Amino acid sequence: MGSSIATCILAAGHEVTSLIKDIETGSEARERILGFLRQLAHEDLLTDAPESILTRLTITDDVTLLSGHTIIIESITENLDEKKSLYHQLEAVLSPTAIIGSNTSAIPVSVLQNGLKHPERLLGIHWAEPAHITRFMEVICGKESDLAYAHEIVTLAESWGKEPSLLKKDIRGFITNRVMYAMLRESFNLIENGYATIEDVDRSLRNDLGYWITFAGPFRFMDLTGIPAYLTVMKDLFPELSNNAQAPKLMEDLVASGAKGVQNARGFYFYTPESAKEWEEKFIDFSYDIRKLALKYIPTSVEETK
Asked: pLDDT tens digits, the chain, 306 residues: what are they?
């Protein structure tokens, strides 16, 4: 995902320094970013040639080269100790006012801030894959974050082509992950108790939720389709939804077997290497198409919630 994030920021006109662990992988990362830039050019989303944009990219394993930067986005493995170790390295070379943003998916920002010299400048900056295409971003404040830094990132993200959401209070999983994992828990509940197959669940969600979610979001959808009926269903359905606090056995078994999804052609579905690659390519094409569709329906008026 780091390459995809770098692509987004390069495409917006900035210079980017990418810090990597193994400099031997630098040429591979550069080629991957060039490929992403060529995708954007093919979709008429660039004003300069990909090769010209790539000249603004520096790839290094020397953390001191970040010393003059004002914004750092960390996108390493979802491991608390490794993230903390990197932050301490960064604090040794950065200005006290340089913003550090973590692309964490679930670790609370307040936990990441513990022990830092300048915890007020650490924020969650949560991206969605593919980061150079999607308009999603969540900017999350920890308990010690300075809100002014968060507003700075929101404004900057808008210049990157994002439509960011701001969380002024820290909560594990933020917005999309909390909602998505509630959906995943209920999906596994339906499968493991014999109500439906994996294919059935995927089919229903694609053809209902997938039909409207890009256009509306849940609260707008309730406005559009009539609020009172939802209250009636909530009273009947909420008590019956799964509240299992354990990870599903099906998921545990699948990961234990070595499955990683299309990455190694082993997942909930059966893949050949060819079909796995085809699904990855289709996902990229779909991401561009859904971006265009979403932009077509951006509201022209400013509204407030109650």
From this structure: 899 999 999 999 999 999 988 898 889 999 999 999 999 999 999 989 999 999 999 999 999 999 999 999 999 988 999 999 999 999 999 999 999 999 998 789 999 999 999 999 999 999 999 999 999 999 999 999 999 999 999 999 999 999 999 999 999 999 999 999 999 999 999 999 999 999 999 999 999 999 999 999 999 999 999 999 999 999 999 999 999 999 999 999 999 999 999 999 999 999 999 999 999 999 999 999 999 999 888 776 656 676
C-alpha span between 204 and 292 (Å, rounded): 24
User: Distance between CA atoms of 65 and 43, rounded to whole angstroms?
Assistant: 33
Domains, the chain, in order of start with CATH, read 2-167 (3.40.50.720), 181-296 (1.10.1040.10)
Interatomic CA distance for residues 129 and 4, integer angstroms: 8
Is the entire prediction scored with pTM above 0.85?
yes
Alpha-carbon distance of 193 to 187, in angstroms, equals: 10
Quick one: three-class SS letters along the chain?
CHHHHHHHHHHCCCCEEEECCCHHHHHHHHHHHHHHHHHHHHCCCCCCCHHHHHCCEEEECCHHHHCCCCEEEECCCCCHHHHHHHHHHHHCCCCCCCEEEECCCCCCHHHHHCCCCCHHHEEEEEECCCCCCCCCEEEEECCCCCHHHHHHHHHHHHHCCCCCEEECCCCCCCCHHHHHHHHHHHHHHHHHCCCCCHHHHHHHHHHCHHHHCCCCCHHHHHHHHCHHHHHHHHHHHHHHCCCCCCCCHHHHHHHHCCCCECCCCECCCECCHHHHHHHHHHHHHHHHHHHHHHHHCCCCCCCCCC
